[in-house]
Amino acid sequence: MTYTAQELPKAGDTVLVGMSGGVDSTLTALMLKEKGCRVIGVTMSLWDGTVIEKNKNSNKEKMKEACYGPGEEENIEECERFCREHGIEYHVVDVKAEYKAKVLEYFKAEYRSGRTPNPCIMCNRNIKFGAMLEAVEKLGIKYDYFCTGHYAKIVRPDSGIFGTEERPYMISGATDVTKDQTYFLYRIPSEILAKVRFPLAEVKKSEVFELAHRAKLEAANREESQDFVGEEYRDALFADRESIPGDIIDLDGHVLGRHKGIEHYTIGQRRGLGVACAYPVYVHSIDPVNNLVVLAKNEDLDSSALVADDFVWPAGIEPGEEFEALVKIRLASRPVPCRVSPYVPDEDDGTEYKGKPWLIKFETPQRAVAPGQSAVLYLDGVIVGGGIISKGVK
Questions:
Q1: d(CA 157, CA 381)
Q2: What does the pLDDT look like over 273-320, one tens digit per residue?
Q3: Potential cystine with 201: which of 102, 153, 227, 349 (Cβ 3.0-4.6 Å)?
Q4: Separation CA 263–CA 82 (nearest Å)
């Protein structure tokens, strides 16, 4: 299938730009301003300070730059300064309550149920492209396009998808494949994507820094932000409830040690297990019902397929039959060939599915399939759907 990239904002358009204080979003705002657009900057306020207060060992000065953290006030000040210097209207919208309910609580609940969540995916869907835009609408702000500094591209198919005549707005990869962020964006509905544009789609990260330094942007000297919260105070997120220790076992049920609570472990993990074995071991699976962490050799972590549910399809158009695609099962993994087909659970399945489940069978076995992560499907470099991994299949 072929696709057409959607045109970027032009001179005279009113463009809302989501700003974090980082180099990508700051340069995006500058590029659009210099193009002759009327630019309106907006930053979402997420941080309420409670996590750092609970973490007695935290040191604000040593915290790494992150989208959620104590550096938010400084980030907003930098955004305000930039917008003032360049004659850009600027707003800060408070979405702390929505972020806590739809990202932080989701993050904790998933880990406590033995799954590995991806909070950035839920933040993009529910907060950055959800609650923040709703807050802007309540302020009475009108705009033609919403732009961010993500490395991705908005396209439309030249013919209908999945046997229909529908040509929804979809997400394609950017020129700089090393900075591809499409995996984080797959849950954003097509109707929202209609007004979304990514001006950095054709720009490489190295060029972004070059342009930012040339423009003498303050953001060009900042360290790259990491996703979500830093490990140095992540444990504080779980301080609202006491962790429940349990056994660490091998595949045969032999007890190898004790874990400090299943929320501190994820599939494929090797470090910090606190057990001594004659061979390297990794987290193979997590049993929340019996409060167990199961370890195994690396070769035992392979899966031939996975089952995923809670799917998002372009414009809600679900495939009518099985199809071949590429699938990405975590941000750091490469897309691999697969066959996607409806999954019909048997009577002994025992899994409660959210929506219709699908079976994704890999062309070659994949390592450490983690329930809670996302399986994102691509055809010709464009996202054609994605869901949440329920389980791996041996």
A1: 12
A2: 999 999 999 999 999 999 999 999 999 999 999 999 999 999 999 999
A3: 153
A4: 40
> pTM, whole model, 2 decimals?
0.93
**163-215 pLDDT tens trace:** 999 999 999 999 998 899 999 999 999 999 999 999 999 999 999 999 999 99
291 Cβ neighbours under 8 A, 6+ residues apart: 244, 246, 247, 262
CB 174 within 8 A of CB 320: no
Burial tier of 94 (Cβ tally within 10 Å: 0-12, 13-18, 19+): middle
CB within 8 Å of 364: residues ≥ 6 apart? 336, 337
Cα distance between residue 268 and residue 161, in whole Å: 36
Enumerate the β-bridge partners of residue 89.
40
Could you tell me the two tokens for 340? 């996607």
How far is the first Cα of the chain from the last one, in angstroms, to the nearest whole number? 32
Helices (H) and strands (E) counted in the chain, each on its own, are: 11, 18
Question: What's the CA gap between 274 and 276, in Å, rounded?
Answer: 7
* Two structure tokens written together for 204: 């490489």
What crossing angle do the helices spanning 205-214 and 23-34 adopt, rounded to 10°?
70
Q: How many residues does the chain have?
A: 394
Question: H helices of the chain, where?
Answer: 23-34, 50-54, 72-85, 96-99, 105-112, 119-123, 132-138, 182-185, 190-193, 205-214, 231-234
CA nearest to 14, candidates 139, 179, 195, 164: 195
Could you identify the residue written with the tokens 């049993």? 287
